[in-house]
């Protein structure tokens, strides 16, 4: 029969049913029979009949030692007797108390039950036991009951009294009646510092609460065989933890330490090396694994990345399982992969669809490396053939032609290299490529800067057989290159190469002001004038001289670099090769610090070099004289220190102990950063007791770097020493408004005063580990420099006061059907409203009341303006919900296309007319939903505001009615007149369709059809036909077809059209050939024959040569005369006469003048003189423009007799 104390212990430990087979309800009689026993128990402590009140103690034996591999993470098993209570600071059990309710009253008396297993007990006689318990009762003023089980000899104790007294009594009972024991278990060595905590802050409370001694092994004795054999697992090495004390305390301490470890090791980060051969194929191969383990973060390297590892991060056990599967997949894939080599011309390499084939076929195309000649296809054998075929199809679509620029400008390679770079940089080549729908590839600047290149190949890539485009591209490139002649550039070579990188900042502004561009190739700077529009040419021209006034100003701006160059200096130091490591330092840190002492880009230091070539025992310095001298002294000092302190220089610096953790940083991050920056070693000297204020930091390395690191540490600690933490009480209801939308107000304060302000989170639970974290939901912390904290605190207090004075409230009613929309998904909508207006909200929800009344109330708190804006936004949502409707009508699918229109134009027009343009995008598209073609559905749906939906539906019905009553007629209209009913961007067509409520179907420009289709009501179609006839009727009276070979002469290079307008009041149009006519009119005069050029010192020369017969062309330029009928008749006669003269011209005259300015005498005021000569001699006379290529020649065309007349008249004017 169990004793009462055993029953109590069993019930509070949850083992009553297991041991005695009695249910909770059956045990109620025990409480009734022992009412005196529990009468003094506080209601603040759960009843002894509550299974969750007192977890059982560990059933520990003698000293136990954990052996074998340890498994860390979520699946880690608790130690034997894992249900052992963990003692808190009060000594009472901290076991789970699920189900217990918060007490309403608090009493001073508590009760605690616990047991000691027979193996844990000290052997004492009954009288001695009574004497011990009596002494403890007397000392602690508690009541202790004890029973011993006859079967298992377990002693169970029930202690009643005040909390502190019960704690002391329990401690004394355990000390007097149980044996001390030692528990040993393993923990990851990496977490040793986490268990101990800063200055023992984590471990000391565990020791004190459980009255135990804890010894944690050192890292140097870590056991690498105790854990998993995973080289990437940072927790795979272990140290022993030894806990010495009494059974209950040992078990509790072990549980607390393992809880820390479990939390730290629940996740695993590991990696798997991927063989380089299969790396590109891995992403596709691992798709299934990634999908299977979606809870893990699996990072697979891209085939272009430098990484060769698959990274796995997540739950430890899941990550291990995924790693095993990935290894298996990689092994299988590697066995299947083969490499096939294919010879493919190098020009075709750029067209190989490497990424497309990798994605679609999981085959990598690897281009040949230096020394290789074949392209490699890497993948599974079954896939490679298809990939090769696809690659062949794609590359065969492209054609590459090469234009060598090196022959331009008589082989002036330096100039041509600069031109090539310039055209590539300023986008001229790109524009030519876009115009002709080709790709232009040109050598990069690095290649162009090489002085030994002999050719400058420009690749022109076209798709398919597009020879005409390639030809036009060549012409455009040649033309542009021809225009940029050497005399239009200025080459500057006297800027020191060390200062070349300063050229852009030096000349940028002056170059922009003078419209000058530049390129830099090596040590050459070439200045250019802006490029004009390209004209086509067949081959590269020679060049002629021209003036370039802007270059002088740009060149003058470079004088400051020339002056700076005079202040440059080069020094070569003799330093043995093995000593140059002192100059470099750890990871180049010493050299970086030396260079940091100079202005950026003002100093260069090259180790193992003399400036011209490699030299093992020399160091080259070049830069601004003062910086070179300073660097030289620094280097000499570093070398001297290296000799003086052969074993390295060491110094110590005391820092406040409170700053030590910040100096070390998380996982030593800050110390590592200092080490990398200065190339020194930092160690923490042995810390003293807690009373000491300072901790010594030992810094070792080269003296210069140690001094720099010491200064940096002093600066940091000084900054941290000035840091202040202020805790400010701010009621939580004001937090949102003080923070502001998107933290705008707080961020502004933080930036202004360089402080960190923390507000508690909405779900504050006090679990934050940050030292400056708020300790309650009504607390705000400010951390930073003392002055900044004080200022920020003042502003926060002012802001709080303002908010308190502006904490107005409003209650609004929201219809039940609108509540979900007002709140939004996961509160998104109401939170957006609150954030945007700075108000707080509180829903007063009651399902019964809402169902009865049909609405719910929400209380808003904020400023008057914020409340007004928030209420407005909520009312808009309510009105939208109440006004929402959905209408479905059945429409024959044959009319669906009419409702949609070209590119959705009809749908947009319907919605616009209904007033739906201002709706948000997601609501806009719901206004009109038409089934996709082929679905078989005839339901057209409109959802949205009722007024808009009604208008949409009405328009749909009207359109259908119209279509059902409409007819379609074909109307023949010449192709060239289609543009008259289309208009700019289709404007005329839209206007006609709107005016006659009809549709006009016009063939596309590449369609030879001349038939347009008109659809609408019969009377509307007839009216539309009449309107079209009116629009396309001819508006010219006379049309003359001028052969294109005579157009330039007859038009007098375009001048004749002004004459026709002024003298005859007639305008001339050329229809579809307007552009060609303009091109012919602006064509340059022919190149003069050799005989036309002067002999010796002739100042003028007139030469007549035969006009070679020109075959009659089949191409004509129409001259359509618009104006009064009489005027056009006169103009036609005039044009016919000129055409007759042009066709009857048998000779060409060339008038050469050494001084082209004399031609102004021939022209006369406003062309009066030359017009008189033209009229008198019936010849065509063309005087060159200032920028014409043959500017020294006047060009004449006519009969020999007429040319002689013109010659005589011209000589009179010139003489």
Low-confidence segments: 20-106, 224-229, 532-546
Sequence of strands across the biggest β-sheet: 1-5-7-6
**What would you call the shape?**
extended
Q: What separation lies between the terminal Cα atoms?
A: 151 Å
**Within the CATH hierarchy, at the fold level, what is the topology of the domain at 1038-1212?**
Ribosomal Protein S8, Chain: A, domain 1
Question: Average pLDDT across residues?
Answer: 81
Keywords: Cytoplasm, Repeat, RNA-binding
Subcellular location: Cytoplasm
Region (Disordered): 64-101
GO molecular function: G-protein alpha-subunit binding; mRNA binding
Describe the structure.
The protein has 1215 residues and is an alpha+beta fold. Among the domains are: 110-176, K Homology domain, type 1 (Ribosomal Protein S8, Chain: A, domain 1), CATH 3.30.1370; 567-644, K Homology domain, type 1 (Ribosomal Protein S8, Chain: A, domain 1, 2-Layer Sandwich); 649-688 and 701-804, K Homology domain, type 1 (Ribosomal Protein S8, Chain: A, domain 1, 2-Layer Sandwich), CATH 3.30.1370; 806-881, Ribosomal Protein S8, Chain: A, domain 1 (2-Layer Sandwich), CATH 3.30.1370.10; 891-965, 2-Layer Sandwich (Ribosomal Protein S8, Chain: A, domain 1); 968-1031, 2-Layer Sandwich (Ribosomal Protein S8, Chain: A, domain 1), CATH 3.30.1370.10; 1038-1212, Ribosomal Protein S8, Chain: A, domain 1 (2-Layer Sandwich), CATH 3.30.1370.10. The protein has 48 helices and 43 strands. The strands form 14 sheets. Strands 1-5-7-6 form a four-stranded mixed beta sheet, covered by helices on one side. The protein has a four-stranded antiparallel beta sheet with strand order 39-41-43-42. Strand 3 (143-148) and strand 4 (155-162) form a beta hairpin. Helix 8 packs antiparallel against helix 9 and helix 32 runs antiparallel to helix 34 (864-882). The longest helix is centred in the N-terminal third of the chain and has 21 residues, at 316-336.
